[in-house]
Amino acid sequence: MEMSTLLFFILSVMLGGSLGAGAYYFWSRRLGSNSEPQREATILLERIEKVFKVVMAEGYFTEIYNYQHDKNIWNLIKDKKKALIIAKAKVLVGYDFGKLRYHIEGLEKKMVIDYFPEPEVLSMDTDYKFYDIEQGWLNRFQSDDYTSILNEAKQTMNEKALQSDLPRIATNQVQLMMFQLAATMNWKIDMQLPESNKDILDEYTAYKPIDAGIDSLNKKSDS
Fold it and tell me: For the chain, how are helix, strand and coil distributed in percent, rounded to 5?
C-alpha cells in the first residue's frame, strides 16, 4: 500500500510538472507574440503638380556638424548639452523651366530667351548620424532640438552646394543641351536677357572644366 501511494505521488508530480511546463510554454508564446511592436502608417496624397524641372548635375557631400548649448543656472552652474552630427547628402542641381520666359519667332525659326532662371537645388537626399551625445541634468535634448539641428544642418548643406561648382556645371550643361537640341531642328536660340540677368548667367558660365592634359600625355607616349 505504501509502494502504490509513493508511485501515485511520483506520477502526480511528473504529470503536474508536464502540465505546468506546457502551460508556461503556451502562455509565453502568446505573450511573446503580443509583445511585437505595432506599426501603422497613413499616407495622404495632398496634391499633384505638373513641373518641368531638369537635373543637370549631382554632387555628394559630407558635413561634420558640431552642436553645443550651454545653460546657466542662476549664473552658478553651467549645464551643457552637445552632439556631433555627421551628415551625408546627394544633391541634385538643375533648372525649373517653368521660370523660363521666352517667345517664338516662327518665321525665322528662332526662340528668343527673355529671362533665364538661376540654377537651384532640386532635390537633396540626406542621411544623418548622431555621435558623442552628452546631456546635462536639466539641459537635455528634446524632440524639437533634434528637428532644429537637422534643419540647420540641411540648410548649411544647401548653401554649400550652391557655393560649389555644381551650379556652374549645371548652367553649362543646360545651355549645351538647349543649343544642340535647337540645332538638330534647324532652329536658333537668341539670348536677349536684361543686363542684370545676363551678368548672373555670365558668372555661372565662367566655369571651365579642368583640362586633361592630352598633349602632355601624347608627348610621353611618343617618347
Answer: 45, 30, 25
Distances from the Cα of 83 to the Cαs of 77, 127, 131, in angstroms? 20, 16, 6
Sheet holding 101-105, edge to edge: 101-105, 110-115, 188-191
The SS3 of residue 53 is strand
C-alpha dihedral (162, 166, 170, 176), degrees to nearest 10: 140
Task: Give the end-to-end CA distance of the chain in Å, rounded to a whole number.
Answer: 113
Taking the C-alpha atoms of residue 53 and residue 179, their distance in angstroms, rounded to an integer, is 18
State yes or no: pLDDT of 15 exceeds 70: no
**Angle, CA of 92, 52 and 94, to the nearest 5°:** 25
Give CA angle at 63 (57, 142), nearest 5°: 125
pLDDT tens digits, one per residue of 75-129:
667 778 888 989 899 999 999 999 999 999 988 899 999 999 999 999 999 898 8
Q: Are 100 and 116 in contact (CB under 8 A)?
A: yes
pLDDT of 138 reads 77
Amino acid at 4: S
Residues 43-52 pLDDT 10s: 888 888 888 8
Q: How far apart are CA 116 and CA 190, in angstroms?
A: 12
Residue identified by cell 540647420 is 152
